[in-house]
Structure of PD-(D/E)XK motif protein:
Amino acid sequence: MTTMHNRPWIGMERLSKRRVDAHTPHNLFWIIDPHGSYGLRIQTNTSIDIKEEKIKLKGIQLIRDETGSNTTDLFLILQNNEDWEIFYSLCDDLIRVVLEYFDGKEMINAIELRLKRWQQLLMQDKRSSFSIEQQMGLFSELLCLKNLVVPKVGIHQAITAWNGPSLDKQDFLLDDAVLEVKSYRTSKGDTVSISSMKQLYSDKNSIYLAVYALTASKNGNSIEELSNDIRQLITDNGTSNDLDLFESKLLAYGFAPEIINEELNNFIVDNQRIFSVTDAFPRITPHDVKDPIVSISYSIDLSKCLEFETSLENFLK
């Protein structure tokens, strides 16, 4: 949680600046504008191609200045200093981006991507909650994406196929198969909940169910760590469009650490299993119920589904 000592503008006067304590070839300053508003100044010797009119940050003014000698400045000015906490989170996020890039052009491209993400974040009026059930669901899908789907189809297709935020579709929609991902607390036994008739139903050739047994523990990994791992995979093997799509899907899922109230949980994976959902697999499909029934949910005892369990080697074959 952001605290008062994180407010770097305290003690600064109007029209003043203070260098950000960061090791980077680019110049970073906390600033106070003529009206007393808090701000961040990013200065580089590279031309900034960001189109201010295309990025609308709620409550924040974005200004580009190329009048300096061999330098370009990007200013972010907070319109209401009472909103400093979320603004500080934005600035801190951008500073981390700047630190990752020595090349000015690459840094600016990364900044633009982050600003587009913050544009979506700031459309929300207040901080939100992210329940442990939501965290478990997203954690399992990200783990599945990273460890199961990417090795089989590559990072680009894996990101494209991920439909987790779309509640009316399976979690991964691949060329010839669909994959549904479920998680449950290890302490509650091998039972998963199926929330609709379509989750285990498809016209595609193969349907798989990936299941993760999780325990909340400080010794485990968090959603943020998994997200960063996937971002690195995209950086190494994907494109900026892949990264943009990934960030958009995280937001659609409701995951935005900058606006989440509570501390995120860490999870240990106690067990990972994959099931092949054949015609004999215990499930309820749209063909099994009468037309007037439009929704249904049920639970499956996985301890009684051992005959359908498959290996990682046979997954997506």
Summary: Residues 4-121 form one domain. The first strand starts at residue 16 and ends at 19. The radius of gyration is 23 Å. The CA atoms of residues 97 and 180 lie 34 Å apart.
